[in-house]
Specification:
Layout: H1 2-17, H2 30-50, H3 58-85, H4 91-95, H5 104-109, H6 118-135, E1 151-154, E2 159-161, H7 162-165, E3 170-176, H8 181-189, H9 191-199, E4 202-208, H10 213-223, E5 228-231, H11 236-241, E6 248-253, E7 256-261, H12 266-275
Parallel strand pairs: 3-4, 4-5
Antiparallel strand pairs: 1-2, 1-5, 3-6, 6-7
Helix pairs in contact: 1-2, 2-3, 3-8, 3-10
Length: 276
């Protein structure tokens, strides 16, 4: 988080003090957009500083989750602001802010010529490295999601065997955590798509990797997920798959992994699977 803020500061100074590939006078809105991006980032940092590192009671868990819910909204607006700035800010300046990861809304707007500048070429190289993270998981395709009984816990305390849950049918497995802002954004935004995909025979199962059950409970109650939702406090599935971070999603059919899904392209990639 602080690294991204430093990146923003550095690029703002570069933009203000040095000539860009596109001349500054061609972008009269540039400084306004950079200020909006900076303000959004500052909001996220303020929320981060309000987090109680070791909550001790229900009130503190509730406070933390309230902050994380706001964090998810602020983070989504922050990332969207880069796409909104496209065309109003030198593209090189936008691309220079990122080290590998580039928000999907911005990627969708970038034109082929934007990747051809020295900064663009470097950004594309780093972005491709980011995509390789998902490519590495393709080795899991064709393998069972679980090789043995894997106990997970529902919000009501009921324990289930994940291996049996996915044995029959097609499922989107969504690994998440209460402290993950993009995960909370997914929880908030996926509800309409969930109904559509369920009608097409794809059920959703969310599996939290929270280590603290109270954090899982508070986030689940706030987000009110309409699909199956469980806690894997021991992170058995995360370790089995070799997942480094969340959100992480994949499609499973009759217990077998059939597709790794890029988190920001869930709707697009599930539709591609359905229509193949």
């Amino acid at each position: 988080m602080n690294k991204l803020l430093l990146n923003f500061t550095a690029v703002f100074l570069i933009f203000s003090c040095q000539p860009q590939t596109e001349k500054q006078e061609n972008f009269p809105n540039a400084q306004t957009y950079f200020q909006k991006i900076g303000n959004a980032q500052n909001r996220i940092e303020q929320l981060a500083n309000m987090i109680i590192e070791k909550p001790q009671n229900d009130g503190e868990f509730y406070k933390n989750d309230s902050i994380m819910a706001l964090w998810g909204i602020a983070n989504e607006k922050f990332l969207t602001s880069f796409a909104d700035a496209y065309g109003n800010v030198p593209t090189d300046s936008l691309l220079q802010m990122f080290n590998g990861y580039i928000p999907e809304p911005l990627v969708q707007k970038i034109q082929p010529s934007d990747w051809e500048t020295p900064i663009g070429k470097n950004a594309k190289k780093q972005y491709n490295e980011f995509l390789k993270y998902y490519d590495e998981f393709n080795k899991l395709i064709g393998k069972p999601l679980c090789e043995a009984e894997t106990t997970i816990k529902a919000l009501d305390g009921t324990e289930k065997d994940l291996q049996k849950l996915v044995a029959d049918g097609t499922f989107l497995i969504d690994m998440w955590a209460s402290w993950c802002a993009p995960c909370r954004t997914f929880n908030r935004n996926f509800k309409k798509q969930y109904v559509a995909f369920k009608d097409k025979g794809i059920e959703t199962i969310s599996i939290s990797i929270d280590k603290k059950e109270k954090a899982f409970e508070q986030a689940s109650k706030r987000d009110q997920l309409p699909w199956q939702n469980y806690l894997d406090a021991n992170q058995f599935l995360k370790k089995r798959l070799g997942v480094q971070g969340v959100p992480f999603q994949l499609l499973v059919k009759d217990g077998i992994i059939v597709k790794i899904v890029i988190a920001e392209k869930v709707e697009e990639e599930i539709l591609a699977y359905i229509n193949q």
